[in-house]
Amino acid sequence: MAAVVPVVGICGPSAAGKSVLAAALQQRLQAQQRRCLVLACDNYYRTPWEPHGPFGFDTVEAIDLPCLRQELAQLQAGQCGSLRTYDMASRSAGRRPLTGEPPELILLEGAYGPQALLEANTFALLVYVQTPLPLRILRRLRRDQQQRQRSARYVLQQTLQQTLPGERRFIRPMRHQADVVVRDPQRSLEPLAAQLSLILSGHT
User: Fold this and answer.
1) Domain harbouring 181, CATH code
2) What is the pLDDT of residues 157-186, one digit of tens each?
3) Is residue 94 domain-resident?
4) pTM above 0.85, yes or no
5) In this structure, is residue 204 part of a structural domain?
6) Is CB count within 10 Å lower at the N or C end of the chain?
C-alpha cells in the first residue's frame, strides 16, 4: 500500500500572506522535481449559505468541512481527479480537473478550515503566518476591491465587525498549536523549504 501523502498546514489571519507563501514553497519544491499541490480552504466555502451570527463568513462554520475532508483524504490516497473551486465575487462553487501524477506533498492553506483538522493529527507540520494588522488591512482593501468587486466601505466594515472578531475566536488560538510561526515569509522561505524536503524524504 502506498504511503499516505503528508499534509503541511499554513494558517493565519486574513491577508497575512498564506497564499503567497504556499505558492513560493510549491515553486521551490517543483524546482527540486517534487510534486506539490496547494489546497486552498477558500475553495470550500459553503454554497448556498447565508451567514448568520456575529462572524458572517469569518467562521469555521462557513466552510464545507465534509467536502474538504473528503477531497483531502482522496488526495492523500492519490485518488482525486478534480477539486472544488469557489468564486469569491459571485460566491458560487465549481470544479477543476487535476492532471498529471498525484502530489507527493499537500500544502493546505487557509484562515478557516485547518482548525477542524487539528484533532485528527492531519498535519506533518503546521505553520502560522503572522503579519501586522495595518499591512493586512491595506492588502484586504486592494485584494477585495480588485478581485472580489467589494467596495472599500464594505471591506472596512466587514474587517471591523466580522473579520477581527472571527480571528480572535478561531484563528489566534492556532498560533499556540503551530510548529512554526512566520513573521517574515521571505526570510523564512528557505528554512521552510528545507523542512518540507525533510518531510518528503521521510515519506519516500
Assistant:
1) 3.40.50.300
2) 999 999 999 999 999 999 999 999 999 988
3) yes
4) yes
5) no
6) N
* Residue 2 belongs to some domain of the structure: no
Instruction: Report the alpha-carbon distance of residue 72 to residue 107 in Å, rounded.
Output: 10
Report H helices in 85-168: 133-147, 152-158, 164-166
> Mind giving me the DSSP string for 51-69?
--STTTTSSGGGB-HHHHH
b or e along 31-60 (b: 16 or more beta carbons within 10 Å of the residue's beta carbon)?
eeebebbbbbbbbbbbeeeeeeeebbbbbb
Provide the number of structural domains found in the chain: 1
Residue 123 vs residues 110, 166, 171, 176: alpha-carbon distances, Å: 13, 23, 16, 15
Find all residues with CB under 8 Å of 195, minimum gap 6, and list them: 125, 180
Residue 69 has pLDDT above 90, yes or no: yes
